Structure formats: structure tokens, C-alpha cells
Amino acid sequence: MKGRETLSNRFEDGVLALLPRLRRFASGLSRDPVDGDDLCQITIERALSRRESYEPGTRLDSWMYRIMRNLWIDEQRARQRRSQTFVSEEAGVAIGASGGQDAAVELNDVDRAMASLPDEQREAVLLVMVEGYSYREAAEIVGCPVGTLNSRLVRGRNALLAKLGETA
Amino acid sequence: MSVTPEELAAFADGELDPVRHAEIGRAVEADPDLARDVTAHRALRARLAAHYAPILDQPVPESLNAPLRCKDKVFSLTEHRKSRAVKRSVIPRWKWVAGPALAACLVLALIPLGSSPKDYAGQQIATALDDQLVATQPADAPVRVLLSFRDRSGAFCRAFTTAEQGGIACKDAQGWRLMEHLAGSTVQTEKYRQAGSVSDQLMARAQEVADGPALDATEEERAMAIRWKSSPSP
Prior knowledge:
The complex is a heterodimer of chains A (168) and B (234).
Chain A: H1 10-30, H2 33-49, H3 60-83, H4 89-99, H5 109-115, H6 119-130, H7 135-142, H8 146-164
Chain B: H1 5-12, H2 18-30, H3 32-52, H4 54-57, H5 62-69, H6 71-85, H7 95-98, E1 106-110, H8 123-131, E2 144-150, E3 156-161, E4 165-171, E5 176-184, H9 195-209, H10 217-225
Antiparallel strand pairs in B: 1-5, 2-3, 3-4, 4-5
């Protein structure tokens, strides 16, 4: 039992300080700010319930991103299972975005281009190009080899460049 | 020299080792197509970063902040209470803990028996526990002893508070072992003076673990005279 760790607020303070960045990552992952905050919410709850597995002195941000990312992937898998029997939600989003008018959220070019990427490419792009992690750090968060991260990143980037124009 | 797309991206991101970085740097200088790709990569990065940056400046919704302000500490406290409530009646003074009016983040950590020596009270607290009597201690003593009692093993235990923390310690052969430890980031603040609440919690907790009533002034004096060493209960 690590009762003594609860004597300090450092863990909570650390997570509090990370919230703006966690919201940014969540919003990018889930392609929607509202869904992003839901993802943030369950990430915080999970982090608090698993705090014993956080090793003090290691990077809290990477630990939190990993939790968020894994929760997101779990959610996607659950969605995929549902969509095998129901109309694909992904297809619905894509149609709504291209149809334009009645989309609840105004998507701009970058949002649309990012939303079109497969999840594994989008998370690689977000971690490196938005969150500023090195390839190695991003690979650790995702739980894949650095080479895999690198190639997902390049595929994601090339797809973005193709959609957004070479001059970005 | 051939440059793979992965290497070019890694070059643009500054992810290559210095030797390879220099090699590709020369290739990029010599090849306008490569140079254009590197520029595009960097421009994309800047565009993405700018696109997602505004969210950093938005106020964080309270629903996300709130769970991090206090509660998980209180979780351990209330869970602990729940597990005990089955066996023991609830002491009313604890009820405020679960209430919405909780103004400060109080922590009750149950320190397990038989753990490391660090679980003993430090010098300042130990000295106070050794030498201060509830009846005669100065009102402004840095460590304030709230009461003394014997636990079920017959050991002498004392509840205390300081400006930042409070606890219950029981005397054994090595010193004052901390049985309970309460700390709060805001035990005392201008607006909410929480010291009283800490005392209430400790008193209530003491009632749970005590075997019999708190020591009176005479019993305390006697206990101090034998250096709080446990003797068979009378």
C-alpha cells in the first residue's frame, strides 16, 4: 500500500497542469471537442483509480497520454463491433462533413483532413507534430516500435499534404 | 544518394543522428525536390500546431478540474469508512467528510502496521508526544496533543495536530509509530480554517481504535512517567 503518496497533492496538481494539453490531444483523437472532453473525463477517472501504477519521477504526461490513447482505442474497437450490425457511424460522419449544411460543428480543411486519417496515423501525427513528442516517446505512448511509428507518421503526413496541398 | 520518405520526414523533424542528418542535409541542398518536401513537412507541422493551439488557451471545464481538486483523497477515507461501517456504528462527526461542503483537501492515509521505519513520527512530533501533556501544553505549541488513549494491544497512543498535518501515533519499542496521518494542502487558509475539522476527524478515529476512554490528566502523567511504555493493561 502506498498510503504515503496520498499525503501530497503532487499527483493531482500534475494532472491539473496537464489538462489543457490532454484536452488538445483528446480533441484531435476523437475529432470533436465535446467527445474530446468526454474522453478526458474518463481518462482522469482512470488515472485516479490507477494512480498506484504511476511511478513517481517518471513522466506523468506520457503516462496520461498512454491511458487516454488506450481508452480511445478500446472505444473505437467497441464501435467497430457495433457497426458490424448497424450503419457505420464513421460513414455517417464522413457524409455529414462532405454534405456540409447540417453538420453541428463547422469543420475546416485541417479538421477534415485529420478526420480522414486512420486512427493509428492520426495519433502518430498528433503526438509528434502537435504534442511535440520525439518519435521514441510517441512510440512508447502508442506501444509500438519506433520504425512503425515513423512509417505511420509518414503515411499520415503524406495523406495530409495531398489533401491540404503541398504548400500546406 | 537515396533518401527514403521516412528519413526525409525524420530529417525535417530533427530525429536523425548527427551523421545521417548532415548527409541528408547535403542531399536536400543539392536537390530542389527534396528541399521542397522538407519545406512542406515543416509547413504542415506549423499549420497543425497552430490549428490545435487555441484549445490550450480555453478555460478547462469544471467537470474536468473538479475530480482532481480533492475527492480521491476522500475516496480512500469514505471507502475506509464504508468497510468499517458494517462493523461499527458511524460517528456523526465523520459525516461532513462525504458532504458537498468540503472546503479543503484532507487526506487520510492509513499507514499499515509493520511497514518501514519512515512510518514513525519525526523528531519534532516525537518529542512533543514524549513530553507534552494535554492539560499543561502551551496553547501555541507547534505540535498540539489532542488526547491520549490505549489501543487494544495496550499500547499508548496519542492524537496530535500541527499547522499542516495531524495524526495518531502509538508508542512501541522503536518510537511513535504513525497509525493515522492526515494532511491537507489547505489545512489552514484565511477563509476556511480546517484545523478544527482535522481534530474532529482524529478524535473520531481515536474513538474507533481506542480500547476504553481517553486518559485523564492523572493517567497521562503516569503514562509519561513510564515513558509511554506499554505495560499490561490494568
